Amino acid sequence: MPPINHKLRLSPTANEQLARIENDPSLEGVLKQIRKTLGLLETNLRSRSLQTHEYESLSKRYNKKVFEAYVQQNTPSAYRVFWHYGNDEIDENGNRIAIITVIAIIPHP
Questions:
Q1: pTM value surpassing 0.85
Q2: With the C-alpha atoms ordered 51, 36, 74, 18, is the resulting torsion angle positive or negative?
Q3: Around Cβ 27, how many Cβ atoms within 10 Å?
Q4: pLDDT tens, 86-102?
Q5: What H or E segment, with its residue span, contains residue 86?
Q6: Strand order in the sheet with 7-10
Q7: CATH fold of 7-107, please?
């Protein structure tokens, strides 16, 4: 069975966070790592480097399963991407498009 590719949708908050990172020259290396993580979310959710797992406190807040994916490891204030599945879309041919909604891109507290 081939892997399912997903289309990413960024929440307004995640979009603002990404724009802030893109506009900060000191975060150029972090931006490259974030883009790699977002690419893996689209193409290979099972990648070991993501270390994806449910983030229960956000799942309760959003009333759906929210996941955390690692951007960095073994780094102080390592960046994380928080996301959930859906809402899927239907294209003009009636095919389902699997959506992942990124809700935050932040350093780990």
A1: yes
A2: negative
A3: 15
A4: 888 888 899 888 999 99
A5: none
A6: 7-10, 99-107, 79-85, 67-70, 53-54
A7: YaeB-like fold (3.30.2310)
